[in-house]
Amino acid sequence: MTRQQLVEQIIEKRSFLCVGLDTDIKKIPQHLRDEEDPIFAFNKAIIDATAQWCVAYKPNLAFYESMGVKGMTAFEHTVRYLKKYYPLHFIIADAKRGDIGNTSAMYARTFFEEYDIDSVTVAPYMGEDSVTPFLGYDDKWVILLALTSNRGSQDFQLMADAGGERLFERVLRKSQEWAGADKMMYVVGATQGAMFKDIRRIVPDHFLLVPGVGAQGGSLEEVCRYGMTKDCGLLVNSSRGIIYASQGEDFAEAAGSSAHALQTAMSAELEKIGL
Asked: What is the pTM of this model?
């Protein structure tokens, strides 16, 4: 998916919502657990209930890898279902990969050739040669970790050098030498608030993937105030607040209602910038 295609979907749906498929076998409704592939059965119902309100889905690989072969089969079924029935939705493999070049090349092959996914999250700690293998694919995206919302982000990401440049700022500046705004996005946690102003001074045009709205306490209004660009420039993710809105037999309906509520708020934010 190209940047223009993504922007067109945002405008058409009046939404920049990404639904995180962090599906835990221990949290899905009891009545699904007798299914042949319970994780996929849950995901399929969530997707069908939320697709009209979102533009992207983000399965988190840890939740699938934790179940071994069965989990990865559910991941593959989920991706194939999205690509067949919802081909205009942007798919993010939340894998946070990053290793020496030849290993990164295999990770890139996994997600971009085997699964044909639109994008993958990548950790920048090992530098340029660990990231560039992901950038060699047409119309595929790298989503680089920049400033995360977890408490431990302060341990390294906010450390400043002698000149006052913080590590996340160095990541933003240096990585722009590797790819432009048509191939690279950045992960910025919603709980970072006004820090979005500092980020936008360095990357004014790149899309930001923003987790942390909802269950983690991030404010959609604050994210939009400081992070939105003329063509939106945001993909705001919600996982637990949508997929676990109910653990009863009405789980899909509840997920759809939660996604619709976020989409309504997002539509109002888009209206503010004339989109």
From this structure: 0.96
Residue of 96, 140, 197, 230 marked catalytic: 96
| Residues 6+ away with beta carbon under 8 Å from 260 | 53
SS3 at position 92: strand
Of 66, 63, 16, the C-alpha closest to 43 is 63
70 is catalytic: no
Rounded Cα distance between 169 and 175, Å, is 10
CA 120 to each of CA 66, 107, 127, 203: distance values in angstroms, whole numbers, following the listed order? 19, 9, 16, 19
User: Which residue carries 């205009």 as its tokens?
Assistant: 88
Query: What is the tens place of the pLDDT at every residue in 100-119?
Result: 999 999 999 999 999 999 99
Residue 193 token pair:
């608030």
Alpha helix ranges (H) inside 59-121? 61-65, 68-85, 101-108
Q: For residue 173, give both structure tokens.
A: 């500046």
CA distance 79 to 121: 16
CA–CA gap between residue 255 and residue 246 (Å, rounded):
7
Our CA angle for 89, 91, 94, nearest 5°, is 150
Nearest of 145, 231, 139, 146 to residue 182 by alpha carbon: 139
Q: At what angle do helices 220-227 and 195-202 cross, to 10 degrees?
A: 30
CA 191-97-195 angle, to 5 degrees, is: 20
Q: Residue 24 belongs to what H/E stretch?
A: none
Q: What pLDDT digit, counting tens, does each position of 205-226 carry?
A: 999 999 977 655 678 999 999 9
- Assigned token pair, 67: 């179940």
